[in-house]
Write a structure and sequence with these properties.
Elements: E1 9-13, H1 17-29, E2 33-37, H2 40-46, E3 53-58, H3 66-75, E4 82-86, H4 91-99, E5 104-107, H5 113-145, H6 149-159, H7 164-171, H8 175-189, H9 194-199, H10 201-205
Parallel strand pairs: 1-2, 1-3, 3-4, 4-5
């Protein structure tokens, strides 16, 4: 499972060594783990960073441009938030990048270090929350997979508000048998109340019968 806590990573992608070094110093001092690449190709080859992260991506680089790299990140399923670094003349292109899913952009020649840190913190916190939700969903799916078909049927009907007696009539089994299956399902799912069962109803319907 991917670790969702701990130190966040900022990946700086810029062909200008001076920009990489200055940002690495700034971000490292602010408490981030910093990883630098001088091209989008190297970023893609390295793979997504572990845990909460943010990518600072230069728009204009030799080889693949920032926009091209962004499109490849999306195509390859990267969910890491992207913020663009741009020159004055690149603002219209940066606006296009925002429309394609980037979360922010900064002009290299005119940005506030404090504001950059604030926006990166916001981005990595949103990413941390997303990772935690994904981990929770995977854990729930694994627990649902442990249910027998009958336990799953009973859990679905109970989550939909059906009483044990009615579930028994629906499935052609006794009310006592319904209670047994329902109890087993609740234990396997790690649930302690009907409210918790109702909350996961959509996930219960997402699993096919074995």
């Amino acid at each position: 499972m991917t670790e969702t806590g701990g130190q966040a990573t900022v990946v700086v992608v810029d062909d200008d060594q001076g920009v990489r070094e200055s940002l690495a110093l700034l971000l490292g001092t602010a408490g981030f783990r910093v990883c630098c690449h001088d091209s989008g190709e190297k970023l893609l080859a390295a793979g997504p960073p572990e845990g909460a992260a943010c990518i600072l991506l230069d728009l204009r680089m030799p080889g693949a441009s920032g926009i091209e790299v962004q499109k490849r990140l999306r195509a390859e399923g990267w969910r890491v938030p992207v913020m663009f670094l741009t020159g004055h003349a690149d603002v219209p292109v940066a606006v296009e990048a925002l429309k394609n899913g980037a979360i922010d952009f900064f002009e290299k020649t005119d940005f506030s270090a404090d504001q950059l840190i604030v926006r990166i913190n916001r981005a990595v916190e949103d990413h941390r929350i997303e990772l935690a939700q994904q981990a929770e969903a995977r854990d729930l799916a694994a627990r649902i997979a442990e249910l027998s078909d009958r336990e799953l049927e009973v859990a679905r009907l109970a989550a939909g508000g059906m009483a044990n007696k009615v579930i028994g009539l629906e499935l052609g089994i006794s009310e006592r048998t319904v209670e047994v299956h329902r109890g087993r399902a609740m234990r396997k799912l790690g649930l302690r109340s009907m409210a918790e069962l109702i909350r996961i109803e959509p996930a219960l319907h997402g699993r096919a019968r074995n």
